[in-house]
Amino acid sequence: MVVVFSCGRTGTNLVLEILSGSDILIPTLTPEDRYLFIRENNKFIYPEDYLTKSDSIYCTSYGHFGNFMTNNPTAKIIWTIRHPFDTAMSKVRRGFPDAADASLKGCVKDMCWMEYLYNEANCEFPDRVLTIKMEDVLLNIEKETQKMCNFLNIPFEDEMVRPWERMRHPGKRERYPGKLYTDQIDMYLNWRTVYDGFLVNNIDFNMLELFKKIESLVYMFSYDIKKFPE
């Protein structure tokens, strides 16, 4: 069983559709299982070929996560991450105006909750969690797919490296028409002008304040800051 897991805007849909190209795994009909960690009072046993994704916002306690892993001892987690500044920018822009994580407070809360779950999961289940950086996937999808296959002990298949052919999320389908694009990497370096200046002209808080609040996550996830946003 495989769960692609993290906070939103970190490449979960992309990695999910990579793995959906495997003949070994059976993806859920809808991309995301929001009830994964709470189904039948957190005691549900899932099929061993079950493949889905879940955003960390739907796992409301680490106890639920731990129980899920204990009840499903073959389950493995592909944990996607992305440069926190780029993640925050995408949350604000793509979630505007209604999503909770499109606000300064909501974005920080969502990302820090993911960080907490990540640290706890890697402490208790280090052999069952694989960290995959979205940037690495965009730059070398074959290498990262092979890494995931080795971790999951499933064969690598050529179909897996063409996730755009299976992309079920409408927004992602538009973003990856026929190939992967690297323009989603280090967007923070041009944060004032990306999205046609949206992050300057359309929100009621200062993105620089948001960047400062999540700066520690940059280093925690082994990223760097080529130039701090101004």
The biggest sheet amounts to:
5 strands, parallel
CATH-level-2 architecture: 3-Layer(aba) Sandwich
Strand order of the largest sheet: 2-3-1-4-5
Whole-Å distance between the termini? 44 Å
Strand proportion, as a percent range, falls in: 5-15%
CATH class identity: Alpha Beta
Mean pLDDT: 96
Sheet/helix structural class: alpha/beta
Number of domains: 1
String of helices and strands: EHEEHEHHEHHHHHH
Shape: globular
Fraction in helix: 40-55%
DSSP E strands, number: 5
Give Rg in angstroms. Answer: 17 Å
Query: Which fold name corresponds to the CATH topology?
Result: Rossmann fold
**Low-confidence region ranges:** none
Give the full name of the CATH homologous superfamily: P-loop containing nucleotide triphosphate hydrolases
Per DSSP, the total helix count is: 10
Question: What is the topology?
Answer:
Elements: E1 2-6, H1 12-19, E2 26-32, E3 50-55, H2 62-71, E4 76-81, H3 84-95, H4 104-124, E5 129-133, H5 134-139, H6 141-152, H7 170-175, H8 194-201, H9 207-213, H10 215-220
Parallel strand pairs: 1-3, 1-4, 2-3, 4-5
